[in-house]
Amino acid sequence: MMLLDWFSDYTLRTVILGSAILGATSGALGSFAVLRRQALLGDAVAHSTLPGIVLAFVLTGTKTSLVLLLGAALTGWLATLLILLILRQTRIREDAALGISLSIFFGLGIVLMSWVQRQPIEHKAGLDRFLFGQAAALMREDVILMSVLAVVILIMLILFWKEFKLLSFNPEYAQTLGLPVRRLDILLTGLIVVSIVLGLQMVGVVLMSAMLLAPAAAARQWTDKLSKMVLLSALFGAVAGAIGTIISSSVSHLPTGPTIIVVVSVFVVLSLFLAPERGLVWDWRRRYAQRRSFAVETALVNLYQLAAQHGSARHPHETSAIEVMMGERARKALQSLQSRGWVQASGTDLWSLTEDGEDKARQLMLKEMH
Amino acid sequence: MMTEATVQQTASKPDLNAPLAVEVNDLTVAYRSKPVLWDVDLNVPTGVLMAILGPNGAGKTTLLKSLLGLIPPAAGKVQILGQPYAKVQKRVGYVPQRGSVDWDFPTTVLDVVTMGVYGKIGWFKRPGKADRTAAMGALARVGMENFATRQISQLSGGQQQRVFLARALLQDADIYFMDEPFQGVDATTERAIIAILQEIKDAGKTVIVVHHDLQTVEEYFDWALLLNVRAIASGPVGEVFTGELLRQSYGGKISFIEDMQRYRLGEDAAALQSSARDLPPWESWGGGEG
């Protein structure tokens, strides 16, 4: 099938649109989760939704997205309460509290799911799509529901933008200003949980935290502005969702969730290396350039000082004389000096300063003294 | 040094008729049933520049945060400008410890300073042009106007501290609380900050600073509180900053303290401070990163 066919196929278009919306939502909210260091909380909540999904199915007998997702939200919320309870009542630290809550709820979910598989319940097939996600199962109604929720989330972000920003950057300061920090915290965390629950259908409980974390981490590399980071993160999430869905539907037996995560991981890796300013490649280049210019300056000053011992700043010296002082970098540095017109080669392997080079060397030495 | 301090105190005396800037009665703060602050009483008149002094773990930051309503007291009462904190929060400026935020947060210097008006512009509104102009003014006051568009991760420690100070200045408060504003800043920044604090005080406002450099207390401040879980003493620096009271606050561990009477206090203060480092167990909560 040609690429264009994907967009003319109605069902597939629905699925791609759904994945893009889910990716955008988790990308946008994920920015806040990452900046507030709540990525692990996202992971715990995502895993804790599994028993809710299974219970909702067992109790109602339907596999309607809305019902299952309400169940998911319920146990996800209970898990959050458990974490808070552990933190308040015991001396267990946050990472351990998250781990405890995650294992209890996820374990329970797996047990329930295996139990359901062995029961004579109708339509039980397909429940396990929540483990690794299955965008192909998205219906038109699901997409409408998701669009509505995504718009609600977007409006919330716009309305409470400055509060959410300050809450993420400096919550204590926000509190001294009189902002209702606790309620804002509940609201923002609530929105993050909603985006997690929505994303479950696409990537599943196991990989959901990656969908929250990866677009945000990639977006952070490209910008130093929160608004741009949130927009870019949403875009990364949407594109990864769409591309991942297209790939997984064109190759048989390729699960959607993991494919989307692989796509978004590619974004992360590229961003880590290539983003200007923060990217590793630029970092290496900067460091290389610094080392290089330092070597060149050192060679110039060395040549000057050697020559000065002979009473003339222009007295020539061999490469080996400079090599004694600064090692193998000397030859390259001298060539670079020659190309700048600060040093001239005279005879075989003899180097002397030019007039410009003499001035430059004096400047450098003066600068070092200050 | 002494004469300078005396001059400052006569230049602008605390206004003893105005309502108290801070009034604390029987304040106790506990962390897991261990008292961090115990039965603290404190009266601070309006218009002073006060240092909160004490060894590590004395509860200096905890006291500051209790005054700001950030930490609920186990017992006791706090009043700011004669009222509970919630009623006066728009008249209070706060400079938190520099290390308490993530300086890699994606935002600019001007944006951080503008946060100073977030409490005043109301829900669903964005800071406008007037707010940004005011923020630029605050930046100029701390000598950072050329850094407005700079990403905050590119700032030095001293510059970070100036940005936080500018944000508090933008609040245009009547009382300022600052947590270790001189921590890890360069000498130029320290001079710039203290000059601004003096200006604030000269305008009749109150500044309360958690401080731990004993050497500069007499030069910088006209009021002081000596704290070590309990309030040891508070009042004009000349009355509080004495060998006997310092020994009570910093503990009897310091043997050389007897020599204090013979030397200038400032010279000993540095040594006193360095030997007082290894102190109580509540540090992780009370005085550290907060």
Task: Give a quick precis of the structure.
The complex is a heterodimer of chains A (370) and B (290). Chain A is 79% helix and 2% strand.
The largest interface is: A-B, 26 and 31 residues
Rounded to an integer, what's the Rg of chain A over CA atoms?
Answer: 30 Å
Structural class of chain B: alpha/beta
CATH class of chain B: Alpha Beta
Description:
- The complex is a heterodimer of chains A (370) and B (290).
- Chain A has 370 residues and is mainly alpha-helical.
- Chain A has two domains: 276 residues, ABC transporter involved in vitamin B12 uptake, BtuC; 89 residues, Winged helix-like DNA-binding domain superfamily/Winged helix DNA-binding domain (Arc Repressor Mutant, subunit A), CATH 1.10.10.10.
- Chain A contains 17 helices and three strands.
- The radius of gyration of chain A is 30 Å and the shape is elongated.
- Chain A starts with a helix and ends with a helix.
- Chain B starts with a helix and ends with a helix.
- The longest helix of chain B is centred in the C-terminal third of the chain and has 16 residues.
- Helix content of chain B is 35%, strand content 20%.
- In chain B, the strands form two sheets. A six-stranded mixed sheet of chain B has the order 5-6-7-3-8-9, sandwiched between helices. A three-stranded antiparallel sheet of chain B has the order 2-1-4, with helices on one face.
- In chain B, a hairpin with a 1-residue loop joins β8 and β9.
